[in-house]
Design brief:
Elements lengths: L3 H30 L4 H17 L3 H29 L8 E3 L8 H4 L4 E3 H17 L6 H23 L2 H12 L3 H7 L2 H11 L2
Antiparallel strand pairs: 1-2
Length: 201
């Protein structure tokens, strides 16, 4: 009993510090993302892909794909501007812990077990731009599949920064029914290689 109360206080204290740290990260990322319509464009694109793939009329389907192409370009442009703005964030604030669970200030305690979010976002920007430009000459269906994977992996990275890799992967599985490993397998080879080299795996 004598050890229980001090242990409980330590647990509560660590949890409080962790929540504060995560709130600061969410606020930092939100402050930069809030200047753009990236999330709305992502939602419009993913829903639009489903409509295009389900559309039976060839003429109507072609119109949808054309509109989606414009939205892809706009999203890529806005994301590149966001990355340019976020690149000005001080380095210590942009570190992401590669530990499986969230530990308060883990990037300061274990700096080698971390990566730079600014570099990760730059990789995502390149992947999204390449998908929008269809640099691999994919079919419209495969292009949509690759772009969706690039966007979901970017979203995973943002959740990872704000919470932890474990939480980010769980959210991706719950929201998009997509495991983290499948995301990595579905993005372009260039994104997969660069991202793996950065985050370690």
């Amino acid at each position: 009993m004598e050890l229980f109360i001090p242990l409980l206080l330590i647990i509560v204290g660590v949890q409080f510090v962790k929540v504060q740290d995560q709130r600061q990260r969410i606020a930092l990322l939100g402050r930069y993302l809030g200047q753009f319509q990236i999330e709305k464009l992502m939602e419009n694109l993913t829903q639009g892909y489903l409509r295009a793939l389900d559309e039976a009329d060839p003429e109507r389907r072609a119109q949808i794909w054309s509109m989606l192409g414009t939205a892809e370009t706009e999203l890529s442009t806005q994301f590149q501007r966001f990355v340019a703005d976020f690149s000005k964030v001080w380095g210590d604030k942009a570190r992401v812990s590669t530990l499986p669970i969230a530990i308060p200030y883990a990037t300061k305690l274990f700096p080698k077990a971390s990566f730079d979010l600014r570099q990760a976002l730059a990789i995502h920007a390149q992947g999204i731009a390449a998908a929008a430009e269809n640099s691999h000459n994919l079919s419209l269906r495969d292009k949509a599949y690759t772009m969706s994977a690039e966007l979901f992996l970017m979203q995973h990275t943002c959740h990872w920064f704000c919470r932890s890799k474990t939480v980010a992967s769980a959210r991706m599985l719950a929201r998009h029914k997509t495991p983290y490993a499948q995301l990595l397998a579905s993005v372009s080879p260039e994104t997969r290689q660069a991202y793996g080299a950065l985050v370690g795996g």
